[in-house]
Write a structure and sequence with these properties.
Elements lengths: L14 E6 L5 H16 L3 E6 L5 H11 L4 E6 L1 H11 L5 E6 L5 H5 L6 H10 L2 E4 L2 E5 L2 E5 L2 E4 L1 H8 L2 H7 L2 H13 L5 E5 L2 E5 L1 E5 L3 E2 L3 E2 L11 E6 L4 H10 L11 E6 L1 E5 L5 E4 L2 E5 L2 E5 L4 E4 L2
Parallel strand pairs: 1-2, 1-3, 3-4
Antiparallel strand pairs: 5-20, 6-7, 6-19, 8-11, 8-17, 9-10, 9-16, 11-14, 12-13, 14-15, 16-19, 17-18
Helix pairs in contact: 1-5, 2-3, 6-8, 8-9
Length: 304
């Protein structure tokens, strides 16, 4: 049991709704149960729901809010967190996080804890930070994202990445798939309308946060709590540029690599008839054309 000075009963919620993505796998499920054991041992009543399909976490979060929940916890990766956030938007309910994903970019962005006892303590204390998500709209509808939207090569990697490979290799699966895609992705030009500016690039990342792919710095000027986006424009295409950008990422130089520009924007549109893949928070998010703007309002994320 966590000592009382770590998990004080006078501040802990009496009831917590947790939405779990079982695709995270057995090892991560074991981490979840360790967090739940600590919370239950400290007198918190837990309602646990598992997701069964894409979009299910959003539905479960809406149901939790209608049932009176003031905090809903997403147990999964960035995609699951985004779905839960979408279900909470406008309700005033707080978003808790048990990071169980492959990259856990938002958890790193907000400096959330990862050790089970520390996660439990953070959820119980309930202190929050503001996050202003983005919304992407395309031919297949709209979806909220909490960290970033990628268009072009990185989205192609996400679209083609198989779940068995991801489970087997974790983050390494993205490296393997990236090498595969350098040989077959055609790098079509992407036409963007960024507020009043129009430009053409090989790839783009529209981000709320500073980090990308885990703990790697991409956009130091990003402001997660504020409206607007940092837009990272990759001017160079082709296998050589993809390999260069891939090598720059783990050493924190991707945002400063040759051919890379940073701009701030409130609205971004991808125009033209070419179908180019998009990914939101590490999940496939359809194809262009699409538009990106701020969510109607911010949410409060529990950080402990």
């Amino acid at each position: 049991m966590v000592p009382r000075h770590m998990l004080p009963r006078q501040t802990a919620p009496h009831h917590m709704v947790i939405i779990f993505n079982p695709v995270a796998g057995r090892r991560r499920a074991a981490l979840l149960w360790r967090v739940l054991d600590v919370l239950a041992a400290n007198g918190i009543r837990l309602d646990l729901s598992e997701t069964h399909r894409a979009g299910h976490a959003e539905t479960l979060a809406r149901e939790a809010v209608r049932g009176g929940a003031r905090m809903v916890v997403a147990a999964g990766g960035d995609g699951t967190i985004a779905e839960v956030a979408n279900g909470l938007l406008g309700s005033g309910a707080r978003l808790g996080v048990i990071p169980l994903g492959t990259a856990n970019v938002l958890a790193h962005e907000l400096a959330l804890p990862f050790a089970p006892r520390a996660v439990a303590a953070a959820l119980a204390f309930g202190r929050t930070r503001t996050l202003w998500p983005g919304v992407v709209r395309g031919p297949d509808g709209s979806r909220l994202f909490v960290q970033m939207l990628g268009i072009g090569f990185d989205a192609q990697v996400v679209h083609r990445l198989s779940l068995p490979l991801k489970r087997l290799l974790g983050r390494g699966a993205y490296v393997v798939q990236s090498l595969r895609e350098t040989a077959r992705y055609k790098f079509p030009p992407i036409r963007l309308r960024i507020d009043a500016m129009e430009t053409e690039v090989a790839s783009a990342v529209i981000t709320k946060g500073r980090l990308y792919g885990g703990k790697f710095l991409l956009a130091p000027e990003a402001q997660p709590a504020e409206p607007g986006f940092s837009v990272i424009l990759f001017g160079s295409g082709g296998p050589g540029a993809a390999l260069m950008y891939g090598a720059a990422l783990p050493v924190g130089l991707l945002g400063r690599a040759p051919g890379v520009r940073h701009v701030r924007a409130r609205r971004i549109e991808v125009v033209g008839n070419t179908l180019i893949p998009a990914q939101a928070d590490g999940d496939a998010a359809g194809f262009t054309p699409l538009s990106v703007e701020d969510a109607p309002g911010p949410i409060e994320v529990v950080t402990g």
